[in-house]
Amino acid sequence: MECKFHSWLPSVPPFQSPPPPVQDLSSDDTPWAAHPLSGFGLVFQLSQRAGQLQFTQASESAQMVCGLSAQALLRSSTAFVGRIHAADQADFHASVQASALHGEPWNWEGRILTEGEIKWINIRAAVKRLDATQVQWNGIMINISHARRRESDLRDMAAHMERAREQERARLARDMHDELGQLLTALKMDISLLRRRLGPDDAQLNSMTQLVDAATAAGRRVAAQLRPAVLDLGLSDGLLWLAEEFSQRYGIPVSHQIEGAGELDDLTAIQIFRIAQEAFTNIARHAQAKSVRLTLARTPGLIALDIVDDGLGFTPATQTSEKSFGLRGMRERAHLLGGTLDCASVPNHGTTLRVRVPCTERGTPADAPTSGKPISA
Q: Transmembrane ranges (predicted)?
């Protein structure tokens, strides 16, 4: 008996900003101060010479978007750069330099500090190299704070629903273990009493005993899939149990390197476990793999989970609806935690699943690293 879980989470995709401007703003004769696109955000022209940024054009919507007048921006770009959130400064400058170096459109999202509030903005701009030392961007800066808050609200709602589902799973697992277990135990005791009367070689009683044992094992297996008790010991132990159970059940060895995940909140630990659980289910059903490698690592602020198999692989563009549904469910779980899930696969060359989830530091890891030895069937 196999218990399959489908994701019923509200779809919370990663935030996607409005499309970039399609027109070449640098060749537009419309005055920049009253540019038609200024109704959507701050229309600007930004130059970089010898590493120094300077706004050379700015629409009057600057005050509305970033809390600075167009004149203030034109006097000094430092006024704007200084308002970028400290945690986003490095990413801002890296995105500028990458666009200048590769000549690719500039697309950056981050936070700025205005008077009394933090705003999320999105910058999209076309890049043009004017000479060997000067680069110019023409684009638009949009306030996306409302969309970010809406995304956060959706994620909070999805997290609440998922907690409720996990609580229901835990209740069902307890009921199955306690109530069904007691009934099957009582039934087996009754069979033992009958065996005293009918003799130990009664074929029907032996068959009934085997059925009760099978039902007991099935109940334990389903209860474990609903809510593995080992999860109470931490994510690392939960993943190790999952790998061992998979290897024993399907005869596929699993090599593993599971480092201490540390102290994680229940939602994060359970969602990462469910992603791994769905991944192993997909491998068993579709991959025809001979081996699997499972890696869990924690770095400051990040949990990384990699699951690699050497199976049949597939072409993502032609995957079946069943595989697509499973991947979508796993991605939704990762997005629920503010993370990402990437799946790379090539026919006859296996599949690699990479999950990256942000996490806050809560002391030293509570789970000791486990051995990297393969788990054999």
A: none
**What is the distance between the alpha carbons of residues 181 and 276, in angstroms, rounded to a whole number?**
28
What DSSP element (H or E) covers 215?
helix 203-226
Say which residues have a Cβ less than 8 Å from residue 149's Cβ, sequence separation at least 6: none
Contacts with 88 (C-beta within 8 Å, 6 or more apart), sequence order:
110, 111
Cα–Cα distance measured from residue 162 to residue 355, given in angstroms and rounded to the nearest whole number = 19
Kindly give, in sequence order, each residue whose CB lies less than 8 Å from that of residue 254, ignoring residues fewer than 6 positions away: 243, 244, 246, 247, 291, 292, 293, 294, 374, 375
- Closest to 8 measured CA to CA, from 157, 151, 152, 147: 157
Integer distance in angstroms from the first to the last C-alpha of the chain?
Answer: 19
The residue ranking higher by pLDDT, 181 or 256, is 256
Q: What is the mean pLDDT of residues 61-70?
A: 89
For the stretch 276-328, pLDDT in tens is 999 999 999 989 999 999 999 998 889 999 999 999 998 866 665 555 678 88
Q: Measured between alpha carbons, how far is 260 from 362 in angstroms, rounded to an integer?
A: 13
How far apart CA 77 and CA 17 sit, in angstroms, is 24
Residues of the chain above pLDDT 90, percent:
37
Q: What is the pTM of this model?
A: 0.56
Percent of the chain whose predicted confidence (pLDDT) is above 70: 82
Quote the Cα angle for 83-84-86, to 5°: 110
Strands 117-129 and 302-309 come out as: unpaired
Instruction: Say if CB 231 and CB 264 are below 8 A apart.
Output: no
20/322: higher pLDDT:
322
- Residue 38 is predicted with a pLDDT of 62
Mean pLDDT of all residues belonging to the chain = 81
What phi-psi label fits residue 293: left (phi over 0), alpha (psi between -120 and 50 degrees) or beta?
A: beta
Give which of 159, 21, 136, 278 is closest to 30, Cα–Cα.
21
Output the six-digit token pair for 283.
């491998």
